[in-house]
Amino acid sequence: MSAVPSPSARWPQRLVSTIRSVSGTAVPSFRPNPARRSTTMASTQTQTTSTGVQYTASGVGPEETETPKKKTIRGTYTAAIDQGTTSSRFIIFDKEGQPQSSHQVEFPQIYPHAGWVEHDPFDLLKSVQTCIARACEQFVDRGFCLEDIKAIGITNQRETTVVWDTNTGKPLYNAVVWPDTRTSRLVHELKRREGADGLLERCGLPLSTYPSSVKLMWLIKHIPSVKQAYSQGRLSFGTVDTWLLYNLTGGIDGGKYVTDPTNASRTMFCNIRTLEYDDYLLDWFGVKGVNLPKIVPSSDPDEYGFMAEGPLKGTKIAGCLGDQSAALVGQCAFSPGMAKNTYGTGCFLLYNTGTEPVISENGLLSTVAYAFKGHKPMYALEGSIAVAGSAVKFLRDNLGLIKHSHEIGDLAATVKNTGGVIFVTAFSGLFAPYWIDDARGTICTPPLPPHALSTTNLFPRSHTVVGMTQYTTKSHIARATIEAVCYQTRAILDAMEKDSGTTLTSLCVDGGMSNSDICMQIQADIVGIEVDRPQMRETTALGAAIAAGFAVDVWKEFHELKGINREGRTTFIPHTEVSEREAKFARWTKAVERCKGWVDNDEAEKEGEEVDDNR
């Protein structure tokens, strides 16, 4: 097996590559120099950030200096950094919650081994700075004023683990991303350790490959530079929000080293009730001595600092929410009993449980919904699905069944059903409510008569076969991929009903897959309740902007937001009978049983040891 090159060897080449936006527009190549501060270019209007992102301080490039000024549009705006698993966005919202400017950039995914997912931390930072620069240029070009942006909020992929040298501010390894499963064997060992059964009650999360805790343990054990930094007391840990905040506010030159409760509660280091680091948990995971960010309110005017460079230099950062909590806020689900489902790279259903955490007995997570300064923290039950939009990307990039992600709905609509195919998209195991770490992606078909059996079937006479028949088309696979997300959502809703004692009558949705009418109709047909989709579906970014706006009095009370993003909503009504839904869900449940036990933990551990040997 080939060695995994060290990040320090890989970054210089990776950082000069061209980043392309989702729209296909190329962003100029940059040559970052992390040690360099903002400098003036040949034109006094063009400057460069510390990672090499060029921007125009006035929003007008040198070639446009002769263009007559447009009429200035004044108003009140908040902005949001939305750093996701596959792309970053920067969106500027008006007070009514409508986007006025935005930019999105994809960044490379790194897959060193099967089940491993990494990001270059500098790619995350540079993509954010690029989005800010381009969105601000667009904002000014449309006649708006940057000084009218009152505050910035940050929302981010959760659990993803970044480690860096406290003294230099430089990463010690690539970010280990939330669906990464290299810790499978470690998790199995930890589950046998004394005290494992009590972790859920203390921190709200079960042991799995999902949270940051086991990722950090793995890095300390297997990466020499991380192990050495830990032993010398210079190992800084953070989730993506902390990494971005630290760098955007100055890095080693006084950057803020903070996180918020919605992110801290995903590490397994934070007590779910006190919202402070728990010494017992730190001892149990063996990470006491690692430098940890200060936990501060999700909405706060003072704790997050100011932008240190770029077109928004001096603008206050005033809010921070993990992406799924941000989507809950963006859907204005401020009352207990309200819920939302976000279809992103993964799929995440949050149910507001009020001011007290509810510890699930049915495979769900207890998490912090949001914690605004001056208000009691609000909690949520969460069901996390590891694979949603990433399964569509798999069909596009790995199998070539579609050219663009948005084609998945149209392809699925060409057939009335899946032709009996069930696709359990367990690429990273199965998360809530199953928590099966050793599951892997499995395609199942129903039993067929002897004359219809295909040579592609691995076990033709079993009740459920792994493989496909000659009847199966790419349309069936596309529809089965959508149904996989919808069935897992149904399983989570069932678990939430058991934990809360309440049955939802409608489900608010957002995220990429929610753009497809056929996807949302399939979801309504599978869960048997109405699905409510907003017209403006950037609710994750909107939630971060709301958090920032609350901190600086753009809004002062939650009731002021009752009209936010309410126009143009679409409701999908289920068209299936109860008996049909139950029969299909029973078949899905059988398929889940077939996907278990495909991971050899000894092999996973062997790959981890090979990283040591090659460094």
UniProtKB/TrEMBL annotation:
Residues 340-551 form the Carbohydrate kinase FGGY C-terminal domain. Residues 25-70 are annotated as: Disordered. Residues 77-330 form the Carbohydrate kinase FGGY N-terminal domain. Residues 38-56 have a biased composition (Low complexity). It is an enzyme of class 2 (transferase). SUPFAM superfamilies: Actin-like ATPase domain. One of its GO terms (cellular component) is mitochondrion. GO terms for biological process: glycerol catabolic process; glycerol-3-phosphate biosynthetic process; triglyceride metabolic process. GO terms for molecular function: ATP binding; glycerol kinase activity. Pathway: Polyol metabolism; glycerol degradation via glycerol kinase pathway; sn-glycerol 3-phosphate from glycerol: step 1/1. Keywords: ATP-binding, Glycerol metabolism, Kinase, Nucleotide-binding, Transferase. Its EC number is 2.7.1.30. Belongs to the FGGY kinase family. This is glycerol kinase.
